[in-house]
């Protein structure tokens, strides 16, 4: 891969996928463990507050912007099919679109929506909290690994 707007697109993809991987890694390695250590009512309330705050421009512009970049990168790659790095570019785009964005939409967001419907102090919330933490974190691991792998694939496309 040489230079020009294509390289800028890929560099932005590296940054977006890397930033997203970092956020997901932080959640998997210490945020969810900290929340799980709280009494269920406090953990549910804290996670609900985090989920409400996450859908603000600071995070969403990176998360959704990277999905748009990944889709554009995949389309441009399929149309132009560069002699170098086509496989890496398609792999990076696919990993992010399916493993990060897709998993978020299919696994994490529905769990977040269900948690938001619970009253934090209720017996139902206390009963569901351990499974929520376990399942949400498992899917978050997938998102973290997929985002990091997408970043690596995009970096490999640049070398």
Question: What keyword list fits this structure?
Answer:
single chain; 159 residues; mainly alpha; transmembrane; DUF1772 domain-containing protein; transmembrane helix; membrane; Anthrone_oxy
Q: How is the main sheet built?
A: none
Unreliable sequence segments: none
Helix and strand element order? HHHHH
Q: Rg to the nearest angstrom? A: 18 Å
Distance between the termini: 7 Å
Organism: Streptomyces tendae
Keywords: Membrane, Transmembrane, Transmembrane helix
Pfam families: Anthrone_oxy (PF08592)
Protein name: DUF1772 domain-containing protein
Can you describe what's shown?
The chain is mainly α and 159 residues long. It has one domain (5-158). 87% of the residues lie in helices and 0% in strands. The model has no long low-confidence stretch (mean pLDDT 96). Pfam families: Anthrone_oxy. This is DUF1772 domain-containing protein.
Short structural description:
The protein is mostly helical.
Question: Which SSEs are present, and which pair or pack?
Answer:
Blueprint: H1 5-36, H2 40-54, H3 57-80, H4 86-116, H5 123-158
Helix pairs in contact: 1-3, 1-5, 2-5, 3-4, 4-5
């Amino acid at each position: 891969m040489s230079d020009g707007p294509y390289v800028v697109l890929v560099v932005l993809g590296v940054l977006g996928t890397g930033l997203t991987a970092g956020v997901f890694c932080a959640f998997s390695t210490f945020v969810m463990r900290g929340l799980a250590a709280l009494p269920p009512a406090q953990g549910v309330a804290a996670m609900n507050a985090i989920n409400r705050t996450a859908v603000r421009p600071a995070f969403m512009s990176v998360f959704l912007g990277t999905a748009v970049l990944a889709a554009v990168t995949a389309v441009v790659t399929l149309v132009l099919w560069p002699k170098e790095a086509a496989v890496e570019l398609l792999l990076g785009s696919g990993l992010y679109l399916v493993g990060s964005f897709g998993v978020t939409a299919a696994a994490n967001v529905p769990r977040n929506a269900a948690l938001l419907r619970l009253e934090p102090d209720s017996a139902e919330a206390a009963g569901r909290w351990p499974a929520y933490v376990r399942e949400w974190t498992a899917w978050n691991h997938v998102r973290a690994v997929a985002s990091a792998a997408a970043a690596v694939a995009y970096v490999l496309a640049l070398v």
